[in-house]
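call fold(seq) -> tokens
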Amino acid sequence: FRTIAVSIIVSILGLTLVTAQDAEKKEPTKEEKAVKGRQELMHVIAAQRVVMRDMADGKRPTDVVAFTHAAHALSALGMVIHEAFTLNAIVGDSTAKPDVWTNASDFAAKSKALTDKGAAIAALAATDIEGAKAMAKDMKECGSCHDQYRVEDKK
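ret:
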């Protein structure tokens, strides 16, 4: 899954960079690239969460394969969150708090918790989709990281 996650991130970063270059006709700084890449990673993670949560909430029909794939993707993407924040960059519309870097070990632990939860949900889905949906519905790993490491309303 790590290979899949890295491939997804590389694709997103490539698309992001082309779009940014076309829009502004200037080369983004490495800090701007890092922030944009992190934001795109978080959007992909959120999309996987939506698939699982919507099925858990009955907003879309349960599809065991799609649910399991979303849980596996969430787990794989969780493995690269910490790596996406290796460059200490808060520029532009970044919503990262400095605590990401000053408390890096806790940030890494929270990323690992997301990875582990995604893997556990995927494993449970193979035999108990209702239990996996309940587990996904009660997932606190995203929020706990956001509360501490993300500025909620940056305008």
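The chain has a mean pLDDT of 85.
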